[in-house]
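Data deposition worksheet. Section B asks for the primary sequence of the deposited chain exactly as it was used as input, without tags or linkers unless they were present during the calculation. Section C holds the resulting structure in token form. Section D is free text for depositor observations; keep each observation to a single sentence. Incomplete worksheets are returned to the depositor.
Section A, Depositor: J.P.
Section B:
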Amino acid sequence: MSIPFKVTGAGNKNAANVFKVVFSQALALPPTIEAWDNSSTFPVSESCGKTTVKQIFTGTAGNSNIPMLYAVATTSAAPGLNWKPASATVGSATKNRLKGRTNYVTNPTTPSAGGHILFNLGLEIPYDAESTAGEMEHMFQIRFFYGGSAPTVTIYGNTGTEISPSWSQITSSQHGLRFCDVTVEGTYELTLPQSGTVDAQEIWVTSQSTISATVTGNTNLKKTSVSATAKGDLSLKAVIAATATSNTNLQKTVSSTIKGDSNLITTP
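Section C:
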């Protein structure tokens, strides 16, 4: 599938085959789906999540001050109709509002070598949200743990149907996600409601031309190892560190981040 493409079933819909992440090596623990501030200018993103102080995470009076992003793990089953969580669960849940490690989603299974996870994403915007890019800048982060060889991570979006999915790769350093109204290719706008809240009806994978020799792509996805002396700039990044865990040898912690863009416009 050529870029751009609309991701089938994305948002508050009863769809399991929406986003897919494949791991070439076995993981040690179930991966988690998180969202964090992005303090860099679009399309550049942070190497990994650090803060959640932007309005997209703090919410507004118009949505009772809860995070606007939400996700559900669908590896084991479709989420059901109208699955969007009405509130944020502290810590982990199968479906949750997203705010760093305060509110996040854990996949129900631990992928083996060549295994995968499935998930769906959504965005709920209140009428009083800031229609400036700064307060909506965010990134999604898939955190996973492994104890042996580092896995290769490949991300896909479904361009087929729920029953017969067709997985189109979201390519490193080139592609990203846009939340928007029902749209035609090239528009990608999400209109603020005059009152209450509105959910993004579609998510598109888009691309941009190269910006510089070291900063490429539109928002979003890059896989690159990070060392003490060299950090990548773009969006899907594998940040490799080491953390001590009880009753095991040293485990490696890897985070992959996906930059999102809400593309807000105000109503007339």
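Section D:
The mean pLDDT is 79.
The chain has one domain: 5-265.
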